[in-house]
Design a protein that fits this description.
single chain, 192 residues, alpha/beta, Maf protein, 7-stranded mixed β-sheet, 6 helices
Length: 192
Amino acid sequence: MDFILASSSPRRKELLNLVGIDPLVICPDIKENLIDGESLEKFLERITAEKAWGIYRDTYLNSVIFSADTIVLLQDKILGKPVDRRHATTMLASLSDQMHEVWTGISIVYQQKIYFDYQRTKVYFEKISNSEIEYYLDHEQYLDKAGAYAIQGRASVFVKKIDGCYFNVMGLPLHLIMQMLKKIDIQIYSNR
């Protein structure tokens, strides 16, 4: 069975590799804008569906296509990817000593059907000093990360605790994906 990952995130490919899936990566080209009045669930469902369907329709009709989108939510405000260092500094300062949520939506397209679900994880940050933020930004890639951080990198020291799926915060909730695959009768860990 062929697997396609409709994402530009190298972390998502690495995470799928961890569970034995080695997908072909194809980066979709869509705009990820929230529509006025759209709930976060509907936003994630719409964006991930657009990513997956676009690739599926092109030439991959017999493949399993995964797409994902991750958002960081702080006090009902979405923190997307920072546009520059100053924006990243502001984001990290706002996350300091706060709880935020990481939401990841997953769409799987298989045999002309689409399946969607999402995962939410609460992340609690310690108080972060300005010098810690500057050090972090000097040593990490942050422009391609929602909320300007990656939990698996140097930002891990900012995390006091999480409530939920760690892999969701990395951008791909593996347990949820495996459960979705089982529901559509795709067994990764099976000899059949």
